[in-house]
Amino acid sequence: MGKIGIYGSSFDPITNVHLWTASTVAHRCKLDKVIFLPCSSKRRDKTMETADEHRIKMVNMAIEDNEKFSLDDYEMIQDGWEIYTYHTMNYFKKLFPEDSVYFIMGADLLVDIGRGMWTKGEELIAENRFIVMARNGIDMLSAISRSPILRNHDDGSTFHLLDKGLAMEISSTYIREEFAIGGEPRYLLPEKCYEYIKKNKLYQ
């Protein structure tokens, strides 16, 4: 039996911190594989700056040298009204029936689920396991204890709370803004992705 982490994000674009986070989680949580799951531009709760095809290509370029990393376009090919993390996790559990599958997320998303802001959030928590990364200003244990949705489904193994040990955050928004104003975010993202963005004039 293996351990697999599902790492969803817009990756618009993918950054070096995305890669460092995935590597840290894989090492600390003894994961055999981290699957990068780019969000679909058809989702009603997100607005993408870049076409799905560009984001897919950049993620593939960024992870191609790490045998533990792979990409899945499951959410990108779903109809927009059917894209919920609950369904996504069911898909991966059926895809890997012999393995333990974890959803990787930040503590900010844990708070949102606890507040009832996610569709099928309670079912998601009740039927899955999570690796939750610390975010500045969020007490993860307190967030769980304050939310009936979270605390009533926490059997001691539901949440693996992880502090990466270094509060390094590079937002994709910042990188997009830098490209837009002619800035130089070169070393904030993989070199291949930087060159791809310049070549295709993305975010300008």
From TrEMBL:
<feature type="domain" description="Cytidyltransferase-like">
    <location>
        <begin position="6"/>
        <end position="177"/>
    </location>
</feature>
<keyword id="KW-0808">Transferase</keyword>
<keyword id="KW-0067">ATP-binding</keyword>
<keyword id="KW-0548">Nucleotidyltransferase</keyword>
<dbReference type="Pfam" id="PF01467">
    <property type="entry name" value="CTP_transf_like"/>
</dbReference>
<dbReference type="InterPro" id="IPR005248">
    <property type="entry name" value="NadD/NMNAT"/>
</dbReference>
<comment type="pathway">
    <text>Cofactor biosynthesis; NAD(+) biosynthesis; deamido-NAD(+) from nicotinate D-ribonucleotide: step 1/1.</text>
</comment>
<comment type="function">
    <text>Catalyzes the reversible adenylation of nicotinate mononucleotide (NaMN) to nicotinic acid adenine dinucleotide (NaAD).</text>
</comment>
<keyword id="KW-0520">NAD</keyword>
<dbReference type="InterPro" id="IPR004821">
    <property type="entry name" value="Cyt_trans-like"/>
</dbReference>
<keyword id="KW-0547">Nucleotide-binding</keyword>
<keyword id="KW-0662">Pyridine nucleotide biosynthesis</keyword>
<protein>
    <recommendedName>
        <fullName>Probable nicotinate-nucleotide adenylyltransferase</fullName>
        <ecNumber>2.7.7.18</ecNumber>
    </recommendedName>
</protein>
<comment type="similarity">
    <text>Belongs to the NadD family.</text>
</comment>
<dbReference type="GO" id="GO:0004515">
    <property type="term" value="F:nicotinate-nucleotide adenylyltransferase activity"/>
</dbReference>
<dbReference type="InterPro" id="IPR014729">
    <property type="entry name" value="Rossmann-like_a/b/a_fold"/>
</dbReference>
